[in-house]
Amino acid sequence: VGWNTRIVPFGPDISSAIFALGFANRAAMAFGGIEPGDYRKMLLYNKERIFAFVNALGDVNAEWAAAAAGCVNWGFPTLADTDIPEILPTGICTYEHVVANVTHEEMVQKSVETRGLKVTVSEIDIPCAFGPAYEGERVRGADLYCQMGGGKTQATELVKMAEMNDIKDGKVEVVGPDVGDLKEGETLPLGIYVQVAGREMQSDFEPILERQTHHLINYIQGIMHIGQRDIAWIRVSKAAIDKGFTLKDIGVVLHAKFHQDFGAILDKVQVTLYTKKEDVDALTERARAEYKFRDERVEKMTDEDVETYYSCTLCQSFAPNHVCSVSPERTGLCGAYNWMDCKASFEINPTGPNQPIEKGECIDPVLGQWKGVNEFVKKASRGAVTHYNFYSMVIDPMTTCGCCECIAAMLPACNGVMTVGRDYTGETPCGMKFTTLAGVMGGGASSPGFVGHSKFNITQGKFIKGDGGLLRMVWMPKMLKEEIRERIEKRGADLGYPNLYDMIADETVGITEEEIMPFLQEKGHPALTMDPIVG
């Protein structure tokens, strides 16, 4: 309708600014029920409900300064494009009172930020249809145009907090070739780096935002996302390419939805997507250091230390009956969430996928089963799962979805267990590759003899404790074994086997139970002398 309708002038002189304040007062009296003359309530209403601010353009004289001071007294900050004395501490205003030397290019964004306005992106400008209806959609081989990650290339996701002035809200950049540069069937490495800034943002919230990329990318019609952290997998359909999909659309979606869903804690979102191998490798190296730091925050906590666990139902779009329960010693099977992450997630989104679970009565301390958890799981799975055990893969194990980092399987002939990560594509002693295992028991079922888990969980104190713990581990891929070597050696020493790392077979020893048995016997693996794992 144009500026003539949107802008209401109150007069040609600076003294007319008082009429604008009068308008704010009338809003407080009309909509807030504030009595005339009640200056304290008038201030609080305007500060909390009327999101006005002053832009002082040009030289600020004494009369201008007096008018601006009056606005500050109502909680409306002043931003100037000249070098005037600043008043930065909070108090009457929500944040800063007077901010100087703001360029015209930054004036609007800085005003919005300083006043505490929250930006809501109502329309997501991408060529594909978008919404929860497409979450869970599969992109199968015949429909596939290209893919990133999933063992074919490296795909990594990282969300980091940034300073307000270091990023530009809404900036989305693709560094390297895009999907439009590929031929059908080709692949790309991918690094999704999201920087967020906000007055209420905390570093503890980073993994919560990072995990949202899973379902938000799945909201795009024709795009399938599986996994997380440094084992993500994105499949792009031919139909999406025909509509004009580009990787930039992922950034557009993340920017819009982060503002919509987490506007209370963030003010700016900037997304960079890397597709050059060297850039992706550099991001991955940095990301893995971040993941390690996050995981170690719960290192010294035990399940007995807390009375509340947390649920995670983020993956129910692909596994409707799956309910992940996260405790200090049982991290999320995706590897992206630990107990502290879920606690933080509940704080910023009380109606989200991470809900508190009161443990209640302990039914079995060895297998890890609680009455309160069973009641929650039965309700959250709509009756499909009535109970499960935290610390066993043999007896009623926790449900598993396809986003798990690793899958453990029983090896009866070796009286032990094996585990395999999604980044290992070879054969395993249980007779199934990771992809086959995930397809068989990754739909949200409790499958005795198998269980999904995170890499970090392997060396946690309660890992399959009900079945004998880490001393049952007889095989894992060499790449996984080397990745967690220090943790295996430390945990092995705690269990009385400082050389446990050298006792665990890998694919260089064999890929069948018959092939690895002589190695286990030679090393004197403790699993061989433990009680039978079956029966």
Summed up:
This protein has 535 residues and is α/β, with parallel strands linked by helices.
Taken together, the total number of domains comes to 3
- Roughly how many Å apart are the termini? 77 Å
Overall CATH architecture of the largest domain? 3-Layer(aba) Sandwich
Strand content: 15-25%
Number of strands: 20
Helicity, in percent?
A: 25-40%
Instruction: Detail the poorly predicted runs.
Output: none
Describe the biggest sheet? 4 strands, mixed
| CATH fold category name of the largest domain | Bifunctional carbon monoxide dehydrogenase/acetyl-coa synthase(codh/acs), Chain M, domain 5
Helical run tally: 16
Query: In one word, what is the shape?
Result: elongated
**CATH first level of the largest domain: which class?**
Alpha Beta
Radius of gyration: 28 Å
CATH superfamily of the largest domain: Bifunctional carbon monoxide dehydrogenase/acetyl-coa synthase(codh/acs), Chain M, domain 5
Class from helix and strand fractions:
alpha/beta
Strand arrangement within the widest β-sheet reads 7-4-10-9
The whole-number mean of residue pLDDT values reads 90
